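> tool_call: predict_assembly(chains=four)
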Amino acid sequence: MKVTRTQIVDRAYDLLRDHGLSSLSMRRVALDLGVQPGALYYHVANKQELLAVVAARVLEDFPASATDPRSAAEAFRTALLRVRDGAEVVSFVQAYRPEIVTPTATLHRLFSTRLGPRHADWAARTVVHYVLGFVAEEQNRAELVHAGVVEEAPSDAGKPDEAFLFGVDAILNGLSSTRT
Amino acid sequence: MKVTRTQIVDRAYDLLRDHGLSSLSMRRVALDLGVQPGALYYHVANKQELLAVVAARVLEDFPASATDPRSAAEAFRTALLRVRDGAEVVSFVQAYRPEIVTPTATLHRLFSTRLGPRHADWAARTVVHYVLGFVAEEQNRAELVHAGVVEEAPSDAGKPDEAFLFGVDAILNGLSSTRT
DNA sequence: ACCTGAACACCGTTCAAGT
DNA sequence: ACCTGAACACCGTTCAAGT
């Protein structure tokens, strides 16, 4: 049985998107591809590296062409929500391989028109931290609801979009009154 | 060999604080207490519940007496940094048992003087998400550095405190120009 | 009431040996 | 070059049986 790196990444991505991080194991990927677990390590260094390239794929449909921070933040969240546990995976990869989290670079570019490179960096990371924190909470909650360990709170049923944008607008508002 | 719930929580907390989340296993706790793994389940429902009470202990030295959001955010971060992977654990527990994340309530109270309950809630959660996102990244990075899988970036050696406060101030700045 | 022993169903990773 | 077989060192959780 022959396997390619692409097949491994594809299968890992599909497992994550459809069944979440707890279902994404090396052994499960190997099983689905009809191969022994050890075979994967000829194409991929370890699980961390696999997660990094899966995270890159999650962020692939984030439009680098965003013209303003607000819509960049929205697009970032949308990309994360397309995949189960998307925020958690990207969050981990951010520490492991920061350059993979492309929204940071996009936001940095957008803030650079108004702020110096140092402040633009901090500003971009502020937005990224907020988005990852917000989406991580809503996805973690969704996983727990799905597992039946916690029931949907009435406040959740409310308007997550509205709450999300409230925070984004507050941050961008505060940043716009910052000078360099 | 007799074990109490308190001993279990104490040992779990110490393992997390000193060796991080990857070292905090039910089997390790049981081994350290000289008991079989199954014995723990007489005192604790499962690992999730154990993590929840450990998270509560992490937040114990967060002063509920904070008088302004800025120092509350700082105290929140300080409490998280005292324990390895503190942000990750609290992040998970936030979805599982939100009421355990006491800084949210404290911030809510502080914002309530200026904002209505709905906006005060969103404002508190914006700050909480930012703090958790920020600290999660710095702690994840620290774990990877400690494991030797990634080397310290020069930007990290910079001023995390300054970057942190930049974001906090931007958020609070933006929130203060919000009316209800 | 509380614990042991033992199992069930999993993990990530390595590596000699095969083709 | 690439994979198998098999192991190593782990996980969380359950549960009959013992005391």
